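Lecture 7 notes: from sequence to structure.
We start with the chain below.
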Amino acid sequence: MRKTIRKILATSNPMGDLEALERLVQVVPETDADALVLIGNLFPKSAHTRDYGVFLRLLAQANLPTYYIPGPQDAPVWEYLREAANVELIHPHLKNVHGSFAFARGPYLVAGLGGEVVDDGKKEEEEVLRYPAWEAEYRFKVLWEVKDYPKIFLFYTHPVHKGLGEGGSQAVAEVIKTHNPLVAFVAGRGQKKELLGHSYVVVPGDLSEGEYSVFDLREHHLETGNVR
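Predicted structure tokens for the same chain:
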């Protein structure tokens, strides 16, 4: 095991596919990854607390420091949060960083905000997870207190990228540009990386399609894979 995290295995949108998650856990040793990132939707809408428990206990079998956030369909959010809190008592290497942050070997700081971030709209956490721009800005405001740590961000929502003509959230783009993380992992179609300011934005692929990616923090190399 490396003393610092270098390679991060990431994926998104498992959508309750426990078979795909089990296969992902099995390929972890082949990837040389030091940490795992998972971006919701963990389950389709209206999953029960026990569903999240089964999912997170299986995820813990990867035996890597793991950082995860919910997607828009992981609602109501208290079902997700309740079981995340319970499972993390038993498996402390799992870290829910939704609206929060955790430290990783490096030392790095890993922060995230799940659900959909909309530039105009109201906060919603019961039928769907949706957060207005001000919430994203406020949640990440605390990072000014730990500004010297290299940062890794997790968002479900892709940032707008005017240079590449890609749509997304202006608020997420502003948070990334303001805090300059080394990398931001986001949900989206395909498996790719791109530069936004001085930060890499990585779309790791959908686990429901078997997709995952491994990002090297030192070399900035993205290797894609599929568990199917």
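Points to note: The radius of gyration is 16 Å. The chain has one domain: 7-226.
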